[in-house]
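Narrative of accomplishments. A recurring question from our advisory board has been how the design workflow behaves on a single, concrete structure rather than in aggregate. To address it, we present the structure tokens for one chain from the evaluation set, followed by the sequence designed for it. No filtering or post-editing was applied between the two.
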């Protein structure tokens, strides 16, 4: 497909986003608008828009690509996600609303202590920066390959241009703008997935219903894996349990997605948002898996050689851009762009919010909307854009998929201690040794990594899957428990009576 056509589409797409930003931020650029959209968001718009944030560009290309190896077993993880979303709706959200939080990590200061609070916030900043940079990196590689290489545009310019555009349409309106743009981008994402199924069905010479029958009758549609609980990472219980706790940690304890929930007037609206979002999330993941199955069926029936593809992640773009119609290629690029930038714009806003509230103490200022603070927030927002650019360029310099993936995996380890901190605070009545908490949060993933690498893998048949985050949290909880000075004072007094 012509790179010029794809570039034209991107220019028009970003033009629409900038227009939306202009109208939503007109006359409102204070910190209340940027951080929590004046707590006046419509729950149904947030619910729909969160789909685009939750499903990154990596999900858009990786979930279909992985079907060739693991069939539909990923859907077990999605079912676990759904359980996790219910815990968020009925355990975490009531807590956040009761405390009227802007940054969710201020809970840790109230319950555990100042250093626990700063540690939790820092875990988010590091993990989300690396995670978001990783996702944007993988997608900009595809943009570079299929568009910008044709004009010899340096990779750094491609990434800088994307981040600059994101910064431009989020800088003033912040969360208020993102709720509108993410709604638009989620629509584009869903539209792209549905039309991708149509275009592949058309390429196979069948109707959409017949295409779904092909998927159903194929070996790819196998969902549940019951065999080999210890050795198979895709076992049902590993996926479900891991999926639930990954969701609680990486959604419920993540400022990015929780910031949207906290922008609504009442806890009831926030809970309706989570339940609606969960329903759409489960269904759309089934569509992604169906796309994956159709891709492999299409390759088999058309005799396409995909052995040269460096990774299954390239299968979807390869078929959409080189083996289907121009319309199919544009639709694919629309979905990929929507998924990627809905994730990145949201992350930049959440990182800015967390830093301003958790480290610059905006919430403790007499007038958080003071023009000087607004200017400071703008500087922080731009700084995180630059930091993300630098991280992506480091990934590029490494030029080694295994090393980059290892860095991303290391970042995912850090959510375990965060889960441990919140679980200890919510489920127990014990104090913590606040001075030791930062060290525990560093030690926990190191201990788990060493155990897995030098004990579990070489000496047992057990293989850790998505439940890794549970073990990580448990190690953190045990260290907090064994070093606890005792119960909270009010509970100790109650016990003595």
């Amino acid at each position: 497909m012509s790179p010029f056509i794809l570039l034209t589409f991107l220019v028009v797409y970003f033009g629409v986003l900038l227009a939306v930003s202009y109208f939503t931020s007109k006359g409102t650029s204070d910190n209340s608008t940027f951080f929590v959209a004046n707590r006046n968001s419509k729950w149904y718009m947030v619910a729909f828009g969160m789909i685009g944030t939750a499903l990154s560009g990596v999900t858009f290309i990786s979930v279909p690509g992985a079907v060739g190896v693991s069939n539909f077993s990923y859907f077990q993880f999605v079912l676990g996600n759904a359980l996790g979303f219910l815990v968020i709706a009925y355990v975490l959200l009531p807590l956040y609303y009761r405390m009227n939080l802007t940054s969710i990590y201020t809970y840790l200061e109230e319950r555990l202590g100042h250093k626990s609070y700063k540690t939790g916030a820092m875990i988010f900043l590091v993990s989300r920066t690396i995670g978001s940079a990783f996702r944007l990196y993988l997608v900009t590689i595809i943009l570079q390959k299929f568009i910008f290489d044709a004009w010899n545009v340096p990779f750094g310019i491609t990434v800088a241009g994307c981040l600059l555009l994101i910064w431009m349409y989020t800088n003033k309106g912040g969360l208020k703008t993102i709720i509108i743009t993410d709604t638009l981008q989620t629509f584009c994402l869903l539209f792209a997935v549905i039309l991708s199924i149509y275009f592949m069905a058309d390429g196979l010479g069948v109707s959409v219903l017949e295409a779904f029958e092909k998927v159903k009758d194929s070996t790819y549609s196998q969902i549940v894996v019951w065999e080999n609980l210890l050795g198979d990472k895709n076992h049902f219980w590993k996926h479900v349990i891991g999926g639930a706790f990954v969701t609680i940690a990486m959604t419920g304890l993540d400022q990015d997605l929780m910031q949207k929930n906290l922008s609504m007037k009442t806890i009831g609206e926030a809970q309706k948002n989570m339940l609606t979002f969960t329903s759409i999330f489960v269904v759309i993941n089934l569509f992604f898996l169906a796309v994956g199955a159709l891709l492999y069926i299409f390759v088999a029936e058309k005799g396409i050689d995909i052995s040269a593809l460096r990774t299954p992640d390239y299968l979807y773009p390869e078929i959409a851009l080189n083996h289907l119609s121009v319309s199919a290629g544009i639709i694919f690029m629309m979905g990929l762009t929507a998924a990627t930038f809905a994730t990145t714009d949201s992350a930049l806003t959440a990182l800015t919010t967390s830093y301003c509230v958790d480290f610059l103490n905006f919430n403790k200022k007499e007038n958080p909307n003071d023009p000087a603070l607004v200017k400071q927030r703008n500087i922080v927002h731009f700084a995180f854009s630059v930091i993300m650019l630098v991280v992506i360029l480091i990934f590029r310099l490494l030029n080694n998929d295994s090393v980059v993936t290892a860095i991303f995996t290391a970042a995912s380890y850090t959510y375990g201690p965060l889960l441990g901190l919140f679980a200890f605070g919510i489920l127990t009545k014990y104090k913590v040794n606040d001075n030791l908490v930062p060290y525990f949060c560093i030690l926990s993933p190191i201990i788990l990594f060493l155990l897995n690498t030098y004990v579990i893998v070489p000496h047992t048949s057990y293989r850790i899957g998505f439940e890794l985050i549970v073990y990580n949290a448990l190690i953190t909880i045990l260290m907090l428990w064994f070093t606890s000075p005792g119960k909270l004072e009010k509970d100790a007094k109650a016990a003595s009576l």
